[in-house]
Write a sequence for this structure.
C-alpha cells in the first residue's frame, strides 16, 4: 500500500533531493514550507544553497502540471504542495499559537483525518529532523519519523580504525619471526580494511601481544614503521595516539581522519605532525589549518578589524595548541613566530571554495560541523602532493541541521574506509587532564 509522507522544512534544507527518497509513495510539501525555504534562499552558506536548489527543483516540476494537484516523479511517486489547514482549531486547542511547525502538523493531521474516512486508509507519516515536531505529532496521533536517508551509519557502528583480536600465541610468534602476517592466516569471518590497526593478544591469557597495521592492499599485516620517539616534544601517551601518528607521518596516506572526544589529542598530534613535515622534513610547502565558523551557543555577532582579527576568536583553539608546541612565554609571541616562518596559515573554511591546494599539509579541525556537500568541496580542493587531515568529535555538533550520523566527517570515514589512500583512527582516552577526561565521560 502506498503511503503519504509530509515533509518538514528541515528535511529539504538538509537534503534538497529528499523528494526522491520515498520511492513510489506520495510526497506532500505544506505551503508554509515554501515560505520557510524562501526565507533561507539569500543565505550565503550551505542552507542557502540547498534552499535555492529546492526552489529550482519545484519550479521545474511546474512544467509537468499544477503542484497543488500533484505531479508525478521519475521514481513513480507523486509530489504535491498542500494548502489545506482545516485542523487549525484543534491545533490551537492543543498547542495554542499557530507557529510554522504547528501549521505543518495541521497539514499532516488533515491527511490523517481524511484517510480515516476512506475504506482503505493509507498511512500518513510526518518526516522531520526536529525532535519536538515528532513529539508533537505523537501527541496528535500522527505517525512521525526522522529523515534517515542522509544517515551514513549509526555512531556505535562507525568504523573505528582499530580491532583487537584474541589469537593463538603461535600466530604472534610467527609475526615476530617473519615481521609480517597474511590477513588470511587469522581466519576471520570478515575483511580488514586498508591501514586498519590490529592488536593481537594471546587467547591463553599471557601478556604476549603485538601491534600491527594492514597494508594498503589489505592483504598483509605489517609492523608500524615509526618508532615511539616524540615529535616536536609530543609523544604518544596511548596506543591510539601512536596509531594516529603512524597515519599522520606516513606520506603514502594523503587522507587521514581522526575522531574522538575532547582532550584526546587530535589537534595537538596533527599540528605536531604537520610542523615536522613542514619545518624538519620540508615535505610540504605550507601548513594550512582551517576550521568551520560555527558558534557553540549564541553567536558573538560582527567583529571589528581586518580578516585576521575577525577570525582570531574562532581560531583561538588552534593558536592555543601552537603556543604549546612553540613553548611561547609571552602573549603575542606566537604571532611573531608565525609571521617569521611564513609557512603556517590559519584560515576559515569560508575562503576555501574555488581554491586548488597542491603541496600542502592541510588540517581541518571540527570537521563534524561540515555537511556532506561541504566536505566534498574541501577534499576535492586537495591538489597533487598534498595531505589532508579531517578531525572532530561526532558527538559535539553545533550545526543545526547535522547529527552524529549525518555529518561530513562521519560520511568521509565510512566512504573511504575501503580505500588504500586513506586511514582512520578513533582516539578513546583523554590526555588533557583527569578533570577533562571525567568531564567528557560524565557530563
Amino acid at each position: 500500500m502506498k503511503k503519504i509522507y509530509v515533509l518538514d522544512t528541515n528535511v529539504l534544507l538538509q537534503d534538497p533531493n529528499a523528494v526522491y527518497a520515498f520511492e513510489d509513495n506520495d510526497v506532500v510539501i505544506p505551503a508554509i514550507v515554501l515560505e520557510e525555504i524562501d526565507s533561507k534562499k539569500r543565505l550565503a552558506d550551505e542552507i542557502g544553497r540547498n534552499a535555492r536548489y529546492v526552489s529550482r527543483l519545484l519550479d521545474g516540476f511546474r512544467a509537468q502540471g499544477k503542484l497543488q494537484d500533484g505531479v508525478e516523479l521519475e521514481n513513480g511517486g507523486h509530489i504535491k504542495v498542500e494548502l489545506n489547514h482545516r485542523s487549525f482549531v484543534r491545533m490551537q486547542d492543543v498547542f495554542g499559537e499557530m507557529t510554522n511547525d504547528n501549521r505543518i502538523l495541521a497539514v499532516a493531521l488533515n491527511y490523517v483525518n481524511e484517510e480515516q474516512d476512506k475504506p482503505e486508509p493509507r498511512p500518513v507519516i510526518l518526516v522531520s529532523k526536529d525532535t519536538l515536531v515528532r513529539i508533537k505529532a505523537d501527541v496528535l496521533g500522527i505517525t512521525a519519523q526522522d529523515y534517515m536517508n542522509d544517515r551514513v551509519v549509526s555512531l556505535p557502528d562507525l568504523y573505528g580504525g582499530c580491532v583487537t583480536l584474541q589469537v593463538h600465541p603461535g600466530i604472534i610468534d610467527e609475526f615476530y619471526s617473519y615481521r609480517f602476517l597474511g590477513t588470511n592466516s587469522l581466519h576471520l569471518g570478515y575483511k580488514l580494511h586498508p591501514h586498519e590497526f590490529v592488536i593481537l593478544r594471546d587467547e591463553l591469557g599471557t601478556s604476549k601481544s603485538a601491534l600491527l597495521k594492514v597494508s594498503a592492499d589489505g592483504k598483509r599485516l605489517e609492523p608500524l614503521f615509526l618508532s615511539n620517539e616524540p615529535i616536536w616534544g609530543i609523544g604518544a601517551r596511548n596506543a591510539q595516539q601512536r596509531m594516529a601518528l603512524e597515519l599522520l607521518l606516513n606520506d603514502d596516506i594523503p587522507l587521514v581522519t581522526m575522531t574522538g572526544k575532547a582532550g584526546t589529542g587530535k589537534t595537538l598530534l596533527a599540528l605536531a605532525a604537520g610542523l615536522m613535515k613542514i619545518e624538519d622534513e620540508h615535505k610540504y610547502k605550507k601548513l594550512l589549518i582551517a576550521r568551520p565558523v560555527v558558534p557553540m551557543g549564541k553567536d558573538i555577532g560582527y567583529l571589528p578589524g581586518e580578516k585576521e582579527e575577525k577570525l582570531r576568536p574562532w581560531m583561538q583553539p588552534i593558536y592555543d595548541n601552537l603556543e604549546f608546541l612553540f613553548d611561547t612565554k609571552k602573549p603575542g609571541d606566537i604571532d611573531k613566530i608565525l609571521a617569521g616562518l611564513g609557512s603556517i596559515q590559519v584560515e576559515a573554511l569560508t575562503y576555501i571554495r574555488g581554491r586548488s591546494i597542491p603541496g600542502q599539509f592541510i588540517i581541518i579541525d571540527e570537521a563534524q560541523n561540515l555537511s556532506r556537500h561541504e566536505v566534498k568541496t574541501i577534499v576535492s580542493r586537495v591538489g597533487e602532493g598534498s595531505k589532508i587531515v579531517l578531525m572532530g568529535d561526532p558527538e559535539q555538533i553545533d550545526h543545526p541541521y547535522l547529527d552524529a550520523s549525518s555529518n561530513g566527517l562521519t560520511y568521509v570515514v565510512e566512504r573511504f574506509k575501503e580505500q588504500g589512500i586513506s586511514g582512520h583512527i578513533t582516539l578513546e582516552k583523554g590526555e588533557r587532564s583527569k578533570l577533562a577526561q571525567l568531564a567528557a565521560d560524565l557530563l
